[in-house]
């Protein structure tokens, strides 16, 4: 089969690799219908994090089950399934507590499962999915339309991550919410905040095209400034006290500082941007009871309820994919995202 | 009148000071029935924080209203009232959001009100209480019994602070909770966790007398180790994953590190110990979704519901006062708390 391989900084390519096989009775083999590139894929692409040359990459996909191990019971051959960005058994104490992202027996695509067998990356024609029962979510109704497919794919990571920011920040009906970051996760956060009933959604965005998309997705206000300059404009929209909930969708020191500065006393910063040089302003946070909640999103836990809304057409996170091609176009998708020409790149296989 | 005055490090004394007067129509004058010494009073006492020599101190008291300004409507002469550790108007956007500790027009006892007049400290015979309607909570039933008085006094700070740790950590019925810190706030946290329905309460305490009190107040388990050595014992009590909620009631670097290390993925550390050299282990917190929520407790917001339970006899936080005397004994109370001979010192006037 063919799959995307990481060769080195700014160098990924589509290569011929061995077909996956069932190793464990809990495995399934999935033929990929669509996959995409994550903002976090850019870290190794840019050399900001280590990755072994020759490794298989990608962690978001929708596909059709081609084979299942003897112990798999909730997923059958022919099912259309969504894979969250990590695999998990669904039964360990952390899964039971609602955090499959910390599954004791889980792992990540391209990494090893609990028995030491390597799982495939998500950017390829076929994927061995460990812990299929706990991991894969069946899409009812069989093969999805081409219109629906992108929104299903968005549920594998970015939509669930934006939702996690909103849940972590405690977004409630009627709330005034600020979203720091206008990338794919930030825009998913706008969708999530609207879905949870926020009345006012302030998007911090300095790109005209993303501002327009943010407004289409539910943002009621846009603040163009960034960093310290964004604080006063947000406060002036909120009688000087700050917003009821902040979605921090970047992870830098500047974005975290902005998030805390615009959060009202007693509110929470919901953070899902992996911290890069970010710090918590602990004294100010303590003085005014601004909490910090979030982390690596437990996407699998949110998938069923978000899938229901995608199928009902009430949310369409597939709109975030502004670069579309086939498997061979994925390297170009990385480049487009790296150069900020695209919000998020998707491949239809 | 007589009141306690801070003279310098390890030096407080009872002095003759001017009687307070109504300055603003929203003021009340309260004759103090009982007052106490807070762990945070020890900071200036020990020279760990700055304080002007000659300043008036104390921020916890129960008393009888002696005079009210013309605009006061919810508090009348003769009412027995509890004062939370900060004054607040009860109507500003932050008060309305449930965080009177961040009241826009508020302040602290011994500090200045929004009009620039200095409020009295709580450790004295009389106190001018600014914003009386928003601040003071009337105790129904008139003069309390000597048995009830300590528990009412505990509501002015320590009980509400322990409760805030529990609320911030998200303690729910059936939860397994750890309490870091066996001082008056930590022990209040034990009471609060039990009150909120925690099934298992693990007290981290190395003092035999405090361990015994913690167990009487609701702790089901005690871990004697401290710092890194406490982690393994707590994990072994929780199938290796950590507790559902952590109450961090100290504020040091060590206590915060312990709190995060014993919090299970997806849980929250509720912190109420003013941070002193504490840091958030952001990468680990992100990886496993351990949140940090809390801060200076909005005690006034919690007072009515906690008062109801004190009056019903379901909680008796007055048990924390293990040093009792009169106004003249307060300097000895500071010394006893400083030398860890007492958990918390109370004076009956």
UniProtKB/TrEMBL annotation, chains A, B:
<keyword id="KW-0862">Zinc</keyword>
<keyword id="KW-0560">Oxidoreductase</keyword>
<dbReference type="InterPro" id="IPR011032">
    <property type="entry name" value="GroES-like_sf"/>
</dbReference>
<dbReference type="GO" id="GO:0016491">
    <property type="term" value="F:oxidoreductase activity"/>
</dbReference>
<dbReference type="GO" id="GO:0008270">
    <property type="term" value="F:zinc ion binding"/>
</dbReference>
<comment type="similarity">
    <text>Belongs to the zinc-containing alcohol dehydrogenase family.</text>
</comment>
<protein>
    <submittedName>
        <fullName>IMP dehydrogenase</fullName>
    </submittedName>
</protein>
<feature type="domain" description="Alcohol dehydrogenase-like N-terminal">
    <location>
        <begin position="25"/>
        <end position="131"/>
    </location>
</feature>
<dbReference type="Pfam" id="PF08240">
    <property type="entry name" value="ADH_N"/>
</dbReference>
<keyword id="KW-0479">Metal-binding</keyword>
<feature type="domain" description="Alcohol dehydrogenase-like C-terminal">
    <location>
        <begin position="184"/>
        <end position="308"/>
    </location>
</feature>
<dbReference type="InterPro" id="IPR013154">
    <property type="entry name" value="ADH-like_N"/>
</dbReference>
<dbReference type="InterPro" id="IPR013149">
    <property type="entry name" value="ADH-like_C"/>
</dbReference>
<dbReference type="InterPro" id="IPR036291">
    <property type="entry name" value="NAD(P)-bd_dom_sf"/>
</dbReference>
<dbReference type="Pfam" id="PF00107">
    <property type="entry name" value="ADH_zinc_N"/>
</dbReference>
<dbReference type="InterPro" id="IPR002328">
    <property type="entry name" value="ADH_Zn_CS"/>
</dbReference>
